[in-house]
Design the sequence.
């Protein structure tokens, strides 16, 4: 069996969606002839823990190697869930980090990760190195290990690096340094992966002629999650709208909540027959906004739930909703929750601008779409889906579209790409 060294700062037992892609790759690569060795950090103070995800990859026989890290987010946190900061605190912290740490505040992981990675490469016959970002520090670790070992390197961009709208550059010097680091990692790579065609084009424009090819392997969902987890029991006869995950930046619940309140003011007779459930971490201001809008009897905030509990909640809901706010780069945002939603084949209320995500939803065939910040348009869309629910006409997602995003099949795509990368490297070196 081939071996791949996977470098991933974000990995279970950390919860939230950022760990899903790599964790599922690690789980299913052995089905396709590749044994993963995962290099990650020791558990620290995360916003959420999910031991079920860790148990899943351990049961698949994945070898996990953990190191210490000197990044500031870990030095002052004990190993327990920590509260989500307010948006103002998060922005101040983000600005400070942008000044002090390049490429990100995980740079303190680089020395122990490279040290441990070198020992792993000495002890195991690793065929390919695979590094996934964010954080960009993971890419630097992968590039340094490639330089030391000569093993071919595959870089996985779950988000953009240089032109990421969340990336702040306090000075032109900071941006130039990021650009040079990104270009250096490009030069070390045998090939590059990303999650959609928008990011593929963005990366191709920055890679010099003769550089590594850029391939797309999208986010996905795991059918086994849905097969093995029953829907949570329900005895009510309400239309349940459910959101799962975290809100950040322009992705906020405010427009949805205001639209829901306006719709209920227009159609008060519907109040006993609708509810909105949030599974995950909401912004600190959200409970006060719910009270202000008089939605206490409509909205339920469950807080963070394990992945299995989230799947059970998704299966019990009638309509799933998501939002991608108007912001630079919004056209290229395809959140991982979108693909988990697709796996249910349930209707999706998407407050989303034009872009790759909207195109996927149009193909899906069971989406109710509205601009993310136009409350009046959201009111009309909520009313339309309510009427469809009341008359039993809620649509079901197309199997032909959903099947493209099966995590097991996507791991097979990655396995074939790793094999092609290995063969190409062997030809180049004459071995």
Sequence:
């Amino acid at each position: 069996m081939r071996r791949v060294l996977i470098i991933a700062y974000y990995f279970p037992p950390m919860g939230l969606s950022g760990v899903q892609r790599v964790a599922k790759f690690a789980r299913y690569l052995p089905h396709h002839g590749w044994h993963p060795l995962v290099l990650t950090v020791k558990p620290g103070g995360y916003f959420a823990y999910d031991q079920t995800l860790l148990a899943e990859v351990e049961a698949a026989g994945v070898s996990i190697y953990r190191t210490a890290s000197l990044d500031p987010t870990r030095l002052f946190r004990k190993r327990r869930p920590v509260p989500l900061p307010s948006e103002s605190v998060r922005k101040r912290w983000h600005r400070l980090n942008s000044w002090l740490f390049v490429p990100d505040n995980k740079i303190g992981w680089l020395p122990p990760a490279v040290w441990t990675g070198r020992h792993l490469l000495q002890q195991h016959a690793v065929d390919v190195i695979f590094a996934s970002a964010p954080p960009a520090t993971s890419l630097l670790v992968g590039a340094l290990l490639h330089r030391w070992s000569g093993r071919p390197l595959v870089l996985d961009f779950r988000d953009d690096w240089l032109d990421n709208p969340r990336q702040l550059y306090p000075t032109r010097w900071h941006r130039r340094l990021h650009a040079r680091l990104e270009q250096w990692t490009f030069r070390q790579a045998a090939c590059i992966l990303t999650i959609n065609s928008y990011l593929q084009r963005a990366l191709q424009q920055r890679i010099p002629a003769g550089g590594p090819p850029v391939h797309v392997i999208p986010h996905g969902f795991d059918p086994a999650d849905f097969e093995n987890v029953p829907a949570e029991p329900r005895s009510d006869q309400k239309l349940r709208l459910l959101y799962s995950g975290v809100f950040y930046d322009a992705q906020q619940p405010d427009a949805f909540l205001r639209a829901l309140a306006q719709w209920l003011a227009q159609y008060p007779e519907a109040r006993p027959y609708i509810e909105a459930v949030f599974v995950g971490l909401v912004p600190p201001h959200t409970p006060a906004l719910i009270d202000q809008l008089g939605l206490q009897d409509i909205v339920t905030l469950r807080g963070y739930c394990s992945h299995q509990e989230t799947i059970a909640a998704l299966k019990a809901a009638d309509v799933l909703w998501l939002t991608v706010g108007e912001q630079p780069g919004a056209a290229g945002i395809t959140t991982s929750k979108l693909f988990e939603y697709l796996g249910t084949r349930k209707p999706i209320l998407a407050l989303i601008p034009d872009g790759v995500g909207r195109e996927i939803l149009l193909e899906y065939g069971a989406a109710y779409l509205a601009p993310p910040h136009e409350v009046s348009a959201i009111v009309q869309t909520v009313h339309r889906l309510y009427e469809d629910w009341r008359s039993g006409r809620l649509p079901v997602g197309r199997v032909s579209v959903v099947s493209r995003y099966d995590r097991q099949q996507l791991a097979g795509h990655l396995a074939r790409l790793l094999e092609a990368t290995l063969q190409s490297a062997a030809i180049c070196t004459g071995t």
User: Anything to note?
Assistant: The mean pLDDT is 93. The radius of gyration is 22 Å. The CA atoms of residues 4 and 181 lie 24 Å apart.
